[in-house]
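Narrative summary of target 7.
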Amino acid sequence: MRHRMVGELMTSAVVHVRPDASFKEIARLLAEHDITSVPVLDDQDRPLGVVSEADLLRHEAAVEDPAGLLPAPDLSDRDQVRSRATTARGLMSSPAVCARPEWTVVEAARLMNQRGFKRLVVVDEAGRLIGVVSRGDLLRVFLRHDTAIREEIRHDVIARLLRLSVDEVGVRVHDGQVTLSGTLKHRSVAAALTGLCRGVDGVVSVTEDLGYRVDDTPAAVTSAADGSAARQGTPGHAEIR
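Modeled conformation, tokenized:
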């Protein structure tokens, strides 16, 4: 299977600033380009950090209420220093969390989810900025047509990886939801097929109605070796998301 890479999905034309960019200059760029953050680059185009809307709002939130009705904000010492900053150097969150162009969608999505980011800067081997990938960029894999997903499952997963006949497994795809049906020789192959289908770009869920003639899973083999009767599998229903 071929997974789409960050380098294929990223935006190469990146709005960025230098460390001496002013608060107002950054706010203007965010508004003009309808983006939520900008990377801060050194003179060799290597990311030093990122200034986001949240960083600018911290500055505003730290301002005392003119009416004296609101309590002073509870900020850490570091955030207090950043809230008083007026240039990108002091406002930015650093170090910059970067992705590589050869990362898969899954790798980038996991990092975004773990860190709560909407965008990641993408750097080359020398650490220089080459693009930005956003949540929306990653979600483009789910725009794949059902027919393309079905053909990849049939030819790449079933025929090439598992070396089965494409006629052994029924594959239906609707809105990215895959349904597998048929009877295979080994239970382990049925499990492998389901897992591989989940990894195909654009697949939302996998429902399997797969039977098997031989239960070759470790538990079944051990049971048979102990003299127990190995159970023969029958088609079951399980939804895997």
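Strands lie at 37-41, 47-52, 98-99, 119-123, 129-134, 170-174, 177-186, 205-214, 238-240.
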